Amino acid sequence: VHTDGRHAVVDFGASLEEDLARRDFTVNAIAYSPSGRELRDPFHGIEDLENKLVRAVGEPRERMREDRLRALRAIRLAARFGFEIEPKTWEAIVESAPFLSRLSAERVKQEIEKTMDQVQYPRRAFELWRKSGAFATLIPSLAEISDVELATLDYLCPPTLPGRPQRKIARMIGLFAAASPPGTVLETLKALRFSNADSAWVHGVITRWSAMEDELRSQLSSSEPPDDAALRKWAAAAGRTRLASVLRLANARWLAEGDAGIPAPSPERVKSVYRRAIRIAYRDPIEVTDLAVNGRDLEKIGLAGPRVGQTLRKLLE
User: Fold this and answer.
1) What DSSP letter does each residue of 258-317 carry, written as one string?
2) Please, are residues 103 and 71 in contact by the beta-carbon 8 Å criterion?
3) Contact at 8 Å (CB) between 266 and 221?
4) Which residue has the higher pLDDT, 137 or 158?
């Protein structure tokens, strides 16, 4: 094998054991012959499975040098299956972190998406990204992500959002909402080769959440629930198609804050308002084009120029 940690030229091994010796982790270095019902486990992968341990085959530093993506894969496997990472393997992951910049943006993006898709509670995976230095190398804007921001991801889970595509994009919103400074979100998503549509959606929801957070928190923390007029303004500020995503992100963040002992709106209040808000967003006029009166109607009664737009906005208000 000749490798620079990203590209490899591979030759077949002379034996099965030699081939298994070049696998990444012991749990992936087990061979089975169905015809002969013969099991080969030269690196004790079955024992590591039983002990719930991710361990590199052979010398961990060599395995990480062969393919830098193995560091991120080890983290994902550990988080997905509730395994621990063997200490020497973890040391090799930390040492490998500064070299992760050799990975293509597409491979990093795929690893993030696999983590969002496969790991039930992705907080632990990205805690290890932060602890190992992977964020500092690959996504510097997330290097200082807080425990509360990481815990937010665990509340954007299957019970909250049925459907894997919706869950994955919601978790992307939760993760990149922690980017610092906030203005780097769109740039970061594009650098990671996310599609223009996904980048625009995630950036749009985060931008509106940032602008509305203080208002939402204040209204939902008060003794009285917000009236319909307030909910119409929320829908207008977020946009009727983005309002649900903004409120889901808000609820997840506040649940994480509650766990950390930070005062936040109750999930019961958010749940009751969520239903009303979504119904209002698709029922009531929240955009100028929703009004029964349009510019031509105003021109017929003598209004012209900028006064037409000004009047329509006043009518909407």
Assistant:
1) HHTT-----HHHHHHHHHHHHHHHHHS--SGGGSS--HHHHHHTT--THHHHHHHHHHH-
2) no
3) no
4) 137
Q: Round the CA-based radius of gyration of the chain to a whole number and report it.
A: 25
> Going by C-beta distance under 8 Å and a sequence separation of 6 or more, which residues neighbour residue 273?
220, 225, 226, 231, 247
For residue 87, is the peptide bond before it cis, meaning its omega torsion is within 30 degrees of 0?
Answer: no
**Are the C-beta atoms of residues 52 and 84 closer than 8 Å to each other?**
yes
Rounded Cα gap, residues 85 and 207, in angstroms: 37
Residue type, 260: A
Residue type, 84: E
Residue whose tokens read 């929240």: 286
Q: Residue for token digits 């999930």? A: 267
57: Cα separation from own chain's centroid: 30
Task: Report how far residue 200's alpha carbon sits from residue 210's, in angstroms, rounded to the nearest whole number.
Answer: 15
Residue-wise pLDDT for 198-230, tens only, equals 999 999 999 999 999 999 999 999 989 999 999
124, 75 Cβ separation under 8 angstroms: no
Q: pLDDT digit string (tens) for 34-84? A: 999 999 999 999 999 999 999 999 999 999 999 999 999 999 999 999 999
Q: What's the pLDDT score for residue 205?
A: 96
Please provide the DSSP assignment of 22-50 as one string: TSSBGGG--EEETTTTEEE-TT-HHHHHH
Residue in 173, 287, 281 with CA at minimum distance from that of residue 234: 281
- pLDDT tens for 227-268 read 999 999 999 999 999 999 999 999 999 999 999 999 999 999
